[in-house]
Write a structure and sequence with these properties.
With about 375 residues, this protein is α+β, with helices and mostly antiparallel strands. The protein is built from 8 helices and 16 strands. The protein is about 25% helix and about 25% strand.
């Protein structure tokens, strides 16, 4: 199911609309608004968590009562937004506020009345929804992995969580594997041959993305767990600190994708980090399989290999269609300092609907320049 997202008055967004599909991929130049779109969704999620749910409810489905709690700008979901002056486009926003609309639900973030330069915002909730279906932004299960995930560690902390998840930086990955690795009933995004146990599925996907490595998790005292890795060069399990960053960065993505509940949202930033190009392609393919299993995916990436992996997953699938994916290419700014965004679709044959300049064409640009320079040298 598609979700209409409108963002106005927030950072580089003057009044911009996006369609979130089963897969929404954000790419483009640095500093042009990709992370800001994700931050807008995280602000909404924080507002919901702090104001909407009664303790007895599993999902945030009571949309008629609002508690009027302030929303912190620098706490929760790794947000570090500064003050309200850092994020509100006050000169172009009549209400001096941020409006974020998801379908027919609107969240209005405003300056606190008693503070001029605040690190929190007031938020009004304008519900119009009459549907009994719980949308992803009000589901109890909401998954997010920050671009700055934890690298190899001697141990990872243990903590109680409302639902099974790896944390925002992968800090609970070892805990999830140790507690639930031998349990079944998780995602259908399994690699062939299918397996019902979480740890076996994790290792099958890990072998696809980072070949010849298997993972396990063991207790390391009362309040932490250790990730142990076995590879072709070592017969006995080794600590994660003895093997590269790529495994530690990709492992929480794999685990989250497999434990994520159908109908929920999984946001992941830069899944390609520290991976070989083939691994980047295969993690894109994996995320496509997670979407096929019914989890809505938002990806921020700078990797054409991730895009191509997603295209492979779509072409292979009998249920995931090309029309279930949108690519938003953030390509600089307009004269009013609002972001320029181009929508790129995926056709039913897997090809892209258009290929604008600077959209993963750097190889061609470099080769063209190399040929010019080489000819200049050869011709003296």
């Amino acid at each position: 199911m598609e979700t209409n997202l409108n963002i106005s008055g927030f950072k580089c967004f003057k009044d911009d609309s996006f369609t979130l599909k089963e897969i929404t991929l954000l790419t483009g130049s640095n500093g042009t608004g990709k992370s800001s779109l994700i931050q807008a969704l995280l602000l909404v999620r924080l507002a919901i968590e702090k104001n909407l749910r009664h303790k007895s409810q599993m999902d945030y489905h009571n949309i008629t009562e609002w508690n009027d709690n302030l929303i912190p700008l620098n706490n929760g979901y790794q947000l570090k937004l500064g003050t309200n002056f850092d994020i509100i486009r006050e000169k172009e926003t009549k209400e001096n506020a941020i409006k974020i609309k998801l379908n027919d639900e609107t969240f209005v973030f405003k300056f606190p009345s008693d503070e001029e330069n605040s690190t929190s915002l007031e938020v009004d909730y304008l519900p119009k929804s009459t549907s009994n279906e719980i949308p992803f932004w009000r589901k109890n299960e909401f998954y997010y992995l920050h671009t700055e995930r934890l690298g190899p560690r001697h141990s990872l902390e243990q903590n109680s969580t409302e639902f099974i998840n790896c944390g925002y930086q992968g800090e609970y990955t070892a805990q999830v594997l140790a507690k639930y690795g031998e349990k079944a009933g998780f995602s259908s995004a399994m690699i062939q041959p299918k397996t019902s146990l979480l740890l076996l599925a994790v290792n099958k996907w890990l072998d696809t993305i980072c070949p010849n490595v298997t993972v396990s998790a063991v207790p390391a005292g009362d309040m932490s767990y250790q990730i142990k890795l076995t590879g072709t060069s070592n017969k006995s399990p080794m600590l994660a600190t003895n093997i590269g960053f790529g495994i530690s960065y990709s492992l929480p993505i794999i685990v989250t994708g497999l434990v994520a509940k159908k109908g929920s949202l999984f946001i992941v930033e830069n899944p390609e980090a520290h991976l070989h190009p083939k691994g980047q392609s295969n993690i894109g393919y994996f995320l496509g399989k997670v979407a096929e299993a019914g989890v809505k995916i938002i990806i921020e990436t700078h990797s054409e290999h991730v895009v191509n992996g997603l295209r492979r997953a779509i072409l292979e699938s009998n249920s995931l269609k090309a029309t279930d994916a949108n690519i938003y290419f953030f390509n600089g700014f307009n004269s009013n300092q609002s972001t320029k965004v181009e929508l790129i679709g995926i056709d039913k044959d897997g090809s892209l609907s258009k290929f604008p300049k600077d959209f993963f064409d750097q190889v061609n640009q470099d080769l063209s320049e190399i040929i010019k320079l080489r000819n200049k040298k050869l011709n003296g």
